[in-house]
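Homework help board

Subject: predicted structure for assignment chain

Our instructor gave us this sequence and asked us to write out the predicted structure in token form, then describe one feature. I got the tokens but I'm not sure how to describe them. Can anyone check?
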Amino acid sequence: MPIVAFDATPREPMPGRRDLLRGTLSEFVAMTLFVFFGCGAAASNAHFSDGDWDPASVTVIALQFGLAITVLVYATAHTSGGHVNAAVTLGLTVSGKCHPIRGAAYFIAQMLGSIAGAAILKGATHGDAGGEDLDRSGSLGSNGLQNASVNLHNAVAFEFVGTFLLMYTVLETAVNGQSLCTDGESSILGNKLSIAPLPIGLAVFIAHVVCIPVTGCSINPTRSFGPAVVSNTWDDHWVWWVGPCAGSLGATMVRQTPLSDSAPPSERAVNINSGRSWSINRSG
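My token output:
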């Protein structure tokens, strides 16, 4: 009898070495690209009016983050599961959809990828001697309290709810085999049709529209880490870990309630097939 997760579906087994290496490399590459293009949008489009974010700037940056995660999840779901977010990896590991060894390897890869992406962005936006940098955000899109009226409680709350939305969307569209985003036979991507990356990207977009004027919007601790390292911006950095991780765990706990899925455990269990985290039924 297989070891089961909270929702009575089998937990992911120990990953093979080749499988783990391929997934870990995919997460590194995806996070590098995500930070460069996501934070790059902030660096090139940040605009303020009387000390507040310009709504058009917020929309452009939010859309870029949403589109970037959609593209990268589609690009990596068959190799790594398309986490591209330490908070997502945490939630999937706790829920049993990602083996702890895989989760730890992905976390390290994401951290290194974030630093790499931020370093490339720093080099790309660095001005000539005596000239101005191209980075309009001033810190490679690093997160921070966006105005004097925002306090730490506000920041944690916004990050919690934004990440809750993202993680809940991941669990109910990508993990849940009964989701309208799958073909009804398998949970996410793999060899079956799935549009789960689209609502995931929309969730990221929605969260950014709301959170950018407050925190710059993290909802992804590893997205925040690289720019902080490269730009040496550490003010209130703990917020970008506590809020997103708590939001991810909150969504994961809600997903385990009896109301989360109408199908009995015996029916739901057939949707899992020795998968890699939440991207399941993949070949190779």
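Reply (TA_rk): Your tokens look well-formed. For the description, you could write something like this. The chain has one domain: 17-126+137-257. That's the kind of observation they're looking for.
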